[in-house]
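I hope you will forgive my troubling you with a question about protein structure. The matter concerns a single protein, recorded as an amino acid sequence and a row of backbone structure tokens. Please examine both parts with care and let me know of anything in them that strikes you as inconsistent. Thank you for your consideration; the sequence and its tokens are set out here:
***
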Amino acid sequence: MNDLNQGFAEAWRMIVALDPDVVSAVRVSLSVSLWATLLAGLAGVPAGFILGLKTFAGRNIISAVLHTLTGIPTVVVGLVGYMMLTAHGPLGSFQLLYTQAGIVLGLFLLLLPLMTVLCMSATASIHAGVFETALTLGATPVRAAAAVVREGRFAYLTAVTTGFGRAIGEVGVAMMLGGNIRGFTRTMTTALALETDKGKFGLALALGLVLLIIALCVNASLHYLKSRAEKD
């Protein structure tokens, strides 16, 4: 119990003092997570919207593949990314392995199926009522689709938020594609794993607390926006 108390005390001291290792890991984590979430959102939200709104040949197959990919082990995603970025891989000439851009690519591959499925499900649940009603009232298909977007905006925002949470808490992809290089590709999760193995529980707990604080802030902001919208 004393070791745990000492660990938390050391963790708070490092956070308050803005320890360089903590700041560096937080900076890298936020950078790669935000970029990956942005890119996956730009691709996944429109794709999920179209899949949820339209019925076409092969849609069920695409849906089944996407649902399968949401449950794929992250180490498999890391392996695929590694094979793509290694010197003999298709993207080897770009020299992205063990860089932040390489981590972003891996996280993008991890988040894209998840965000697409969440947006597809949200659109499908709204589509039947809102889209058809809008068409009945004389709206064009474009305006009817816009009505679906307005109705499901918080569901899409939740999908993006979920993607960010998955990205910032990821360790396998970041370790395999980033190499856990101190001050360059070391994220909060990879640093946490390393420091725990080294027995430096103060730094590990500090990073864990920062992760929890970030998750709390993101979710609190989402709930605040929802409550404001409901009041309006």
